[in-house]
From TrEMBL, chain A:
SUPFAM superfamilies: Periplasmic binding protein-like II
InterPro entries membership: SBP
Listed PANTHER family: MALTOSE-BINDING PERIPLASMIC PROTEIN, MALTOSE_MALTODEXTRIN-BINDING PERIPLASMIC PROTEIN
Keyword annotations of the record: Signal, Transport
Signal peptide as annotated in the record: 1-27
Lineage: superkingdom: Bacteria
GO molecular function: maltose binding
Name of this protein: Extracellular solute-binding protein
Pfam families named in the record: SBP_bac_1 (PF01547)
GO biological process terms, semicolon-separated: maltodextrin transmembrane transport; maltose transport
Keyword Transport: yes
Family as reported in the entry's similarity comment: Belongs to the bacterial solute-binding protein 1 family.
TrEMBL record, chain B:
Polar residues: bias regions: 1-14
PANTHER family for the chain: ABC TRANSPORTER PERMEASE PROTEIN (PTHR30193), DIACETYLCHITOBIOSE UPTAKE SYSTEM PERMEASE PROTEIN NGCF (PTHR30193:SF41)
Organism per entry: Cryobacterium tagatosivorans
Keyword terms of this UniProt record: Cell membrane, Membrane, Transmembrane, Transmembrane helix, Transport
Keyword Membrane: yes
Protein name according to UniProt: Sugar ABC transporter permease
Membrane topology listed for this record: Multi-pass membrane protein
Matching InterPro entries: ABC_transporter_permease, MetI-like, MetI-like_sf
Length: 432, 319
């Protein structure tokens, strides 16, 4: 009797141990993701702007020419209020493509929670490929457990674009604009508006969408702090002197009527309604014939040298989705699309910066031939990404609400607003 | 013998307790007097069940669970959380404010819609020349996409817009859509103007059923045009008024496009945020459909209560 019980106990222990080991293997990586070794045709989505379509088409053509048994079918991301909503719906419906070359980092934690994304570390060379290509920057794209559910792809480091003609009209030196410190920036802004050269010195969108702070507060906060994310180690970082300095700077612009509080219908910078704008290198081709522009890094209170100034990356990455049947092909296509050659094509065709180390050195010929992009290439090495944390969108919305109230519309005091927003964000990040 | 008797066709008399009669009664109980009617109404019934009933029941279920959208096959836990989502929603000042905002909206929009559409429909009913042109003119905003019309209103109500230029020193500061006090009323005026054409059509149809003899009798009794309007027209179109009240309330409570586009996401400072806009933010953007469903359930209950009150006050039972 006793020996029978012992045998049962041993058998149960053996079965349990096998199950634990099997589960542990699944959680620990390797190639246990379903379909990780499968090869065949795949579908990918890319952005719907003209230059990225051109890049996508040539990339797919090049791949398909060499892989007749693993064809890539590509299409633009279906229309919706935003790409993130379309991708989220596709994940839920189970019809997401294999790869999306327009995955916003802020949405990645949510897609991961939905079970929609593949941990790229489950591919044998996954982590090493990402870290070799993107260097230290890659760390910003890890989740809280240090896993990569996104491939860092390209950034659009934002800078201050200024209209040289309007600066000249206001009696300012268009070749050496005084925009490095907050005091200089404010003095320049006052001159621009008082002279009548422009209705607004600068006009970032004043609306309440969660992402709008990426183009007013966040770039300046990244610069002021030397590259600190809004949330680090699960805690908000902005309720301090640095955050307050940035917020006070913007508040002064709004209070003095130097920045517009109303939504502008159209492009205020292209229309000459605003003399400055915060945009990335995608804007170079857009404003090429419309505005006689120059670009400088975003200001800081002390006037940080250009080659030390951080900014917001405005990156778009690539996600590999669990709905994909042929994941091995998808991973190979992903590596092909982010190879040195294809990154060069991306730079050439879109002007956007591949998230890879030594960008200006690797593509020295391109930057020599296109000097207007050189400062963006340099800036790309000092960028800050949105934090990859749970409830990221809700956190940014909480921040935007507080910022909008205290800074744009001047209600309440800034330290309290930032402190309250920080508490809300910390609670959201702590929530699963 | 008894078997034969059971198999005999029924004579049609309901009093006969034979098996055929029982079977027919059972069929009639199950399918009603006109089974073909059930067949004909089945497509719409299926539509209502699939498009309205199922989502509503599912939303109620979601609001009591820790729910989020997940990929098919993903192992996720969705535990029952009781009233937790409702507690979160009711403790959120932004949600409370959104219900207050939509209350302001309804207080302006619903009476304005009823009064304007009735007055304009009565006027249109009397007009002989340009009748078609005028009817089409009122209807055009209703059929035009909000996205297109919003651009025109942004132009009209911006700081340097036409409205402020006409008002001169009387223009509000900050201007309409970025003014906490004026943002929601401006949206209410916009929606009233946009939907007026549809409600005018409803009243025009109702006015065709008001007998001309009633007006003649009122005139014989010495009633002028204003008295006739209050004593004949308004009671004559009461069923339409109940319908207009109900539709204006339901569509108003579901306000989304206008705060999303006209005030850039419910600004300034949430002064024009509506419950449905928050449902979109929480459910779709922020990935918390459970919380969004809780807001939705509260909104449905609030609208049902409002509709019941309106029906009682406006005399819907008589219709």
């Amino acid at each position: 009797m006793r020996s029978t019980r012992k045998r049962r106990l041993l058998a149960a222990t053996a079965v349990s141990a096998t199950m634990v080991l099997a589960l542990g293997a699944c959680a620990g990586g390797g190639t246990e993701t379903p379909g990780a070794d499968a090869r065949g045709d795949i579908t990918i989505w890319y952005s719907n702007n003209e230059s990225e379509i051109a890049w996508g088409k040539q990339m797919v053509e090049a791949w398909n020419a060499d892989h007749p048994d693993e064809k890539v079918k590509a299409q633009e991301i279906p229309a919706g209020k935003s790409s993130e909503e379309v991708i989220g719906a596709a994940i839920t419906a189970g019809n997401a493509p294999c790869l999306v070359f327009n995955t916003a980092p802020v949405a990645v934690p949510q897609f991961e929670k939905q079970g929609g994304l593949v941990d790229l570390g489950t591919f044998k060379d996954g982590v090493s490929y990402i870290e070799k290509r993107s260097g230290d920057t890659a760390a910003q794209y890890q989740n809280a457990d240090g896993k990569y559910f996104q491939m860092p792809w390209k950034s659009n480091p934002v800078m201050i674009f200024y209209n040289k003609d309007l600066f000249t009209k206001a009696g300012l030196d268009p070749e050496n604009p005084k925009l490095a410190t907050y005091d200089e920036f404010l003095a320049t802004a006052r001159t621009l508006v008082k002279s009548g050269a422009a209705e607004n010195a600068i006009h970032p969108s004043p609306t309440s969408e969660f992402f709008q702070s990426w183009f007013d507060f966040y770039p300046l906060y990244a610069a002021e702090t030397g590259g600190t994310q809004l949330i680090e180690d699960g805690k908000s970082t902005f309720a301090n002197k640095d955050g307050e300095a940035v917020a006070e700077f913007w508040k002064t612009l709004y209070d003095e009527g130097l920045a517009g509080k109303e939504t502008y219908q159209g492009d205020s910078f292209a229309d000459g309604q605003a003399a400055m704008s915060i945009v990335g290198p995608w804007a170079v081709s857009v404003y090429k014939d419309a505005v006689n522009w120059g670009a400088v890094p975003v200001p800081t209170s002390a006037g940080t040298p250009a080659d030390e100034t951080y900014t917001f990356s405005d990156a778009k990455n690539v996600g590999l989705f669990t709905a994909c049947k042929n994941k091995a092909t998808a991973w190979d296509v992903l590596k092909f699309a982010t190879s040195e050659e294809q990154d060069g094509q991306l730079l050439e065709l879109t002007g956007q910066m591949p998230l890879r180390t030594d960008l200006t050195g690797t593509y020295a010929d391109y930057f020599k031939a296109n000097p207007t992009y050189e400062q963006f290439g340099d800036q790309a090495s000092r960028t800050v990404e949105v934090p990859s944390v749970s409830n990221a969108v809700a956190g940014w919305q909480a921040f935007r609400n507080a910022y909008s109230k205290a800074v744009i519309f001047g209600e309440g005091d800034i330290p309290t607003a930032l402190s309250d927003a920080a508490k809300k964000i910390d609670a959201l990040v702590a929530k699963e | 013998m008894s078997t034969v008797a059971e198999r005999q066709p029924s004579s049609g008399s309901a009093s006969l307790p034979d098996g055929g009669g029982r079977a027919r009664r059972r069929r009639r109980l199950a399918l009603g007097r006109n089974p073909i009617g059930l067949l004909l109404s089945a497509p719409y019934l299926i539509f209502v069940l699939a498009v309205f009933a199922y989502p509503l029941v599912f939303a109620v279920w979601m609001s009591f669970h820790d729910y989020f959208f997940a990929a098919p096959g993903a192992q996720v836990e969705r535990p029952f959380v009781g009233l937790e989502n409702f507690q979160e929603v009711l403790a959120d000042p932004a949600v409370i404010r959104s219900f207050g905002n939509v209350g302001i909206f309804l207080l302006i929009n619903v009476p304005l819609t009823v009064v304007l559409s009735l007055v304009l429909a009565t006027g249109l009913n009397k007009v002989v020349r340009f009748r078609t042109f005028l009817r089409v003119s009122y209807f055009v905003p209703y059929v035009t996409a909000s996205v297109a019309v919003v651009g025109v209103w942004l132009f009209l109500f911006s700081g340097n817009g036409l409205v402020n230029q006409l008002l001169g020193p009387l223009a509000p500061d900050p201007t309409w859509l970025i003014n906490s006090a004026w943002a929601m009323p401006t949206i209410a005026f916009f929606v009233t103007w946009k939907q007026l054409g549809f409600f005018i059509l409803l009243y025009l149809a109702a006015l065709q059923n008001v007998s001309e003899e009633l007006y003649e009798a009122a005139a014989t009794d010495g009633a002028g045009k204003v008295r006739s309007f209050f004593s004949v027209t308004i009671p004559g179109v009461r069923p339409a008024t109940v319908l207009v009240l109900l539709l204006a309330t339901v569509t108003g409570a579901n306000l989304f496009t206008e705060p999303y586009l006209l005030t850039g996401g419910g600004g300034p400072n949430g002064a024009s945020a509506s419950p449905v806009l928050l449902m979109y933010q929480r459910g779709i953007e922020q990935g918390s459909p459970d919380v969004a469903a809780a807001i939705g359930v509260i909104l449905v209950i609030a609208v049902l209560i409002l509709a019941w009150i309106q029906r009682k006050v406006a005399g819907g039972d008589e219709s």
